[in-house]
Amino acid sequence: MTKIKLLILSDSHGNVSRMLDAAEREAPDTIIHLGDMIRDAQELSRAYPNIPLESVSGNCDGWTAIPPERELTIDNVRFLIGHGHTWKVKSGMDTALCTARGCGADILLYGHTHSPVCYRQGNLWVMNPGTVLGGRSDPSYGVIELKDGAISCELRSF
């Protein structure tokens, strides 16, 4: 029986301490950071060098070799991860959802809006973990568990 726990973070905007708290609390197998600020993700990775970290860049990250969206597979589950600005998620989800379906993703992860959402649309899970920073909504993050092909997704508050 394989069980993998993923910690999903986005829009940290300099608040590394909350990300460290979440990593300590959740003890994830993998961390995914969805941009804004990529240097925060790098600092988190230095604090937890034994936990793999996957990331994308956000609209506030400036020039970086890290792409703003990418595909990845973890335990045979296909993810499409992106900050969301290239899909214009603040204007609607059509582009992001079409892109996710087009690449055969099981899970679409995005940030940018600072608004946490987690739902299933057909066979596609969609999650925005909200923002580590807080502001328009309470500070939040996401947890995804993969267990023998089953997927569970949940939002959590700091």
What does this structure look like?
- The chain is α/β, with parallel strands linked by helices.
- The chain has a single domain, classed as Purple Acid Phosphatase, chain A, domain 2 (4-Layer Sandwich), CATH 3.60.21.
- Helix content is 19%, strand content 35%.
- It has three helices and ten strands; from the N terminus they run βαβαβββαβββββ.
- A five-stranded mixed β-sheet has the order 3-2-1-9-10, covered by helices on one side.
- The protein is globular and about 35 Å long.
- 39% of the residues are buried.
- The model has no long low-confidence stretch (mean pLDDT 95).
CATH homologous superfamily classification: Metallo-dependent phosphatases
Question: Percent of residues in beta strands?
Answer: 25-35%
The residue ranges in which pLDDT falls below 50 over 5 or more consecutive positions are: none
**Distance, first to last CA:** 30 Å
State the major sheet.
5 strands, mixed
Strand tally, please?
A: 10
Helix content: 10-25%
- Taking all Cα atoms into account, the compactness measure Rg is 14 Å
Give me the secondary-structure category: alpha/beta
Can you tell me the CATH class? Alpha Beta
Order of helices and strands: EHEHEEEHEEEEE
Please state the average pLDDT score: 95
Individual helix count: 3
In CATH terms, what is the fold-level topology? Purple Acid Phosphatase, chain A, domain 2
**Biggest sheet strand line-up:** 3-2-1-9-10
Question: What's the domain count?
Answer: 1
What is the CATH architecture term? 4-Layer Sandwich
Spatial shape: globular
